[in-house]
Design a protein that fits this description.
With about 600 residues, this protein is an all-alpha fold. It has 14 helices and no strands. Helix 1 (about 5-70) packs across helix 4, helix 3 (about 100-150) crosses helix 4 and helix 4 runs antiparallel to helix 5. One of its GO terms (biological process) is cilium movement. One of its GO terms (cellular component) is ciliary basal body. This is Outer dynein arm-docking complex subunit 3.
Length: about 600
C-alpha cells in the first residue's frame, strides 16, 4: 500500500500540471491575440499619422513655395520653366520636385529603419525566450533521466520536488507545442514563399501578356485608322466618279437628243424635197403630154377657125408654159442644190439608177429570203427526223442496257452457284482427306509389327504432317497404298512374288487379287446405268478417282460389315475396280486391326 501512494500522487500532480498547461495555453493564445490586435491598431494609427504628416508637409511645402514666389521675383523663372532641370533619377510617386523626392525618400528610409528595429527587437526577444525554454527543457530532460534511473526511487521527497516535476512536465509540453508550432510556421512560410514565387511568376507572365495585348491593340488601332483613311478616300473617289458619270450620262443624253433632232430634221427635209421632186416630175411629164395634146387640138381648131389666131394663141401658151417650166426648174435646182442644168440631169439620172438598183436589190433579197425559208424548212424537217432517230437510238440503247443487266445478273447467279459448288467440293475433299488421314493414323501401328528388313518403304513423310493435315493428296494416297500393301503382306494374303515387285506393279497386283472384276452379264447393264447416274450427279470438280469413294459414302447404309473371307466379292463395274471404295478400305483396315489384336492376345470389337 505504501508503494501505491507515490503513484497516486504523481497522477494527481500530472493532472494539475495538465490543467496549468491548458491555462497557460489559453493565456498565451489570448496574449497573442491581443498582441496581434494591438499591432494592427498600431500599424493603422501609424499609417494614418504618417499620411497626415505627409499631407501637412505637402501643405507646408506649397505654402512656403507660394511665400517664396511672392517674395522673390527671380523664382518665377524656375517655376515657369520646370523642364530646365535635368532629371536623371525618376522621382518617387507623389513628388514633384527634388526636395519633395528627398523628403519622401527620407520618410521611407525612417519607416523602414523603424520596421527593421522592431523586427530585430522581436527577433531578439523571441531568441531569448526560446533559449530560456531550451535551457529549461534540458534541465527537465536531465531530471527526467535521473528519475527514470532504476537505481533511483521516483517518489518525490518533498512538495517542492513534486511541483518542480509538474513544472517540468508543463515545460516539456509547452516546448513540444512550440516546436510543433515552429515546424508549422516553417511549413507555412515555405508554402507562402512558394505561393509568392508562383504569384510573382504569374504576375510577370500577366504583365508580359498585357504588354503584348497593348502592342497588338496599338497595331490594330493603327490598322483601323489606316483602313478608315482608305475607306474615306474610297468614298470620296466613289462620289467623284458618280458625279463624273452623271455628267457624262447627261452629256450623252443631250448629244443623243440633238442627234435625234438633227436626224429628224434631215428626214423631214429629205421627205419634203422628195415630195417636191415628185411633184415637179409629175408636172414636167404631165405638161409635156398636155402640151402636145393641146397643140394638136389647137391646130385642129385653127384649121376650122383660122390659122392666124391659132398661131398667136399657141405662141402665147408656149411662152407661158416655158416660163412656168423655167420657174419650176429653178425651184428644182434650188431644192436639189445644183447650180447647172447638167447637175440636175445627172442627179435625176442617178436617182433613176438608184431606184432601179433598189428594185434589183429588193428582188435579190426576196429571192434569198425565199431560199432561206426553203432551207429553214429543210433544216426543221432534218431536226424532226434527228429527234425521232435519237428517240429510236435511246430506245435501242435502253434495250441493250436491259440485256446487259440481265446477262450480268445471270453471270452473278452462275458465279454464286459456282462458288457454292466450289465450297461443297472443298468440303467433300476435306472430309475425304480427313477420313484418309484417320485411316493412315490407324494403319500406322502396322509398321511396328512388320520387319523393316523384310518390307522396305521408299516414301519419305513426317508423322507431324499427317497429324496436322499439311500433306499433299498424292503423297497421302501413296502412303495409304503403302500401308495397305504392308497390311496385306503381314496378313499373308500377298505372295512372296508380290513382295518383290515395285510399288506400281504391287498396286496393280493388289487390284487383281482383292478387287476382281468378273461379274455376271445380267448385272452389267443395271450397274452401268447406276454408275452413269452417279457420275452425272457428282460435281465436276471431283477427280475421277474419287467417284467410287463418294459412291461408297452414299451406299454405306446398304453394305454390311463382312469378315475377311468376304473381301473377294465381285465389283459392280470395271470402273469401280480401278480404285477401292470406302467400305472396302474400311474392311481392309478392320481386318489388319483384327490380325494385330489376335497377335497381342485380345480382340477388338468391330463397328
Amino acid at each position: 500500500m505504501a508503494s501505491k501512494t507515490p503513484e497516486n500522487g504523481n497522477d494527481q500532480g500530472s493532472v494539475q500540471i495538465n490543467k496549468k498547461i491548458l491555462e497557460l495555453k489559453k493565456k498565451l493564445l489570448l496574449a497573442e491575440g491581443q498582441k496581434k490586435a494591438y499591432i494592427g491598431e498600431w500599424t493603422q494609427r501609424e499609417k494614418q499619422n504618417s499620411d497626415f504628416v505627409i499631407e501637412l508637409k505637402k501643405d507646408i511645402k506649397e505654402l512656403t513655395g507660394k511665400v517664396t514666389y511672392l517674395n522673390n521675383s527671380n523664382s518665377r523663372k524656375s517655376v515657369d520653366n520646370p523642364q530646365e532641370v535635368v532629371r536623371k533619377i525618376p522621382y518617387p510617386p507623389g513628388a514633384k520636385t527634388a526636395e519633395e523626392a528627398v523628403q519622401i525618400i527620407d520618410l521611407k528610409y525612417i519607416d523602414l529603419t523603424k520596421q527593421l528595429d522592431l523586427l530585430n527587437n522581436k527577433y531578439l526577444k523571441r531568441k531569448a525566450f526560446f533559449d530560456n525554454l531550451l535551457e529549461q527543457y534540458h534541465e527537465a530532460l536531465a531530471n527526467k533521466n535521473d528519475n527514470q534511473d532504476p537505481a533511483v526511487e521516483h517518489v518525490p521527497s518533498t512538495i517542492e520536488e513534486a511541483e518542480s516535476r509538474k513544472l517540468i512536465c508543463h515545460l516539456e509540453n509547452s516546448i513540444h507545442k512550440t516546436n510543433v508550432q515552429w515546424m508549422e510556421a516553417e511549413h507555412i512560410y515555405k508554402k507562402y514563399k512558394s505561393i509568392k514565387v508562383s504569384l510573382m511568376a504569374d504576375s510577370e507572365k500577366f504583365e508580359k501578356s498585357l504588354l503584348e495585348l497593348e502592342e497588338a491593340l496599338s497595331d490594330q488601332q493603327v490598322d483601323i485608322t489606316r483602313m478608315q483613311q482608305i475607306h474615306n478616300e474610297a468614298i470620296q473617289m466613289r462620289d467623284a466618279t458618280k458625279i463624273i458619270l452623271m455628267r457624262q450620262e447627261h452629256a450623252a443624253h443631250v448629244s443623243t437628243r440633238s442627234r435625234e433632232r438633227q436626224a429628224f430634221d434631215f428626214r423631214r427635209q429629205v421627205e419634203e424635197r422628195k415630195a417636191e421632186l415628185e411633184r415637179l416630175e409629175r408636172k414636167l411629164f404631165s405638161t409635156g403630154k398636155a402640151l402636145i395634146h393641146q397643140g394638136s387640138m389647137e391646130s385642129n381648131a385653127d384649121q376650122q377657125t383660122g390659122k392666124k389666131i391659132g398661131k398667136q394663141d399657141s405662141n402665147a401658151q408656149a411662152q407661158e408654159m416655158t416660163s412656168e417650166m423655167e420657174m419650176e426648174f429653178k425651184i428644182l435646182m434650188e431644192t436639189t442644190g445644183a447650180t447647172t442644168p447638167m447637175e440636175v440631169l445627172e442627179r435625176f439620172i442617178a436617182q433613176k439608177e438608184s431606184t432601179s438598183r433598189l428594185n434589183y436589190l429588193r428582188t435579190v433579197t426576196e429571192g434569198e429570203k425565199k431560199h432561206l425559208e426553203v432551207q429553214r424548212e429543210m433544216l426543221l424537217s432534218q431536226l424532226e427526223t434527228s429527234k425521232f432517230s435519237d428517240v429510236k437510238e435511246n430506245e435501242i440503247n435502253q434495250e441493250q442496257v436491259e440485256q446487259f443487266k440481265n446477262t450480268i445478273s445471270e453471270e452473278q447467279q452462275r458465279e454464286e452457284q459456282c462458288m457454292k459448288a466450289y465450297a461443297h467440293t472443298n468440303y467433300v475433299i476435306n472430309s475425304i482427306k480427313s477420313t484418309l488421314l484417320d485411316l493412315v493414323l490407324k494403319l500406322q501401328e502396322v509398321d511396328e509389327t512388320i520387319d523393316p528388313i523384310q518390307i522396305a518403304s521408299n516414301i519419305p513423310f513426317q508423322l507431324e504432317d499427317i497429324i496436322s493435315g499439311n500433306i499433299s493428296n498424292d503423297l497421302l494416297l501413296r502412303i495409304l497404298e503403302d500401308k495397305l500393301r504392308k497390311g496385306l503382306i503381314s496378313s499373308g494374303q500377298a505372295d512372296k512374288e508380290v513382295r518383290l515387285l515395285e510399288d506400281d506393279d504391287l498396286a496393280i497386283k493388289l487390284d487383281e487379287l482383292h478387287v476382281p472384276t468378273h461379274q455376271s452379264p445380267s448385272a452389267t447393264p443395271r450397274s452401268t446405268s447406276a454408275l452413269e447416274e452417279r457420275e452425272r450427279l457428282l460435281p465436276q470438280a471431283f477427280p475421277a478417282c474419287y467417284a467410287n469413294l463418294m459412291a461408297g459414302r452414299t451406299t454405306t447404309g446398304q453394305v454390311s460389315s463382312a469378315s475377311p473371307g468376304q473381301m473377294n466379292q465381285p465389283a459392280p463395274t470395271d470402273d469401280e475396280g480401278d480404285v477401292p471404295s470406302r467400305g472396302y478400305l474400311k474392311r481392309q483396315a478392320q481386318y489388319i486391326v483384327d490380325s494385330k489384336s489376335r497377335r497381342k492376345g485380345f480382340r477388338v470389337a468391330r463397328r
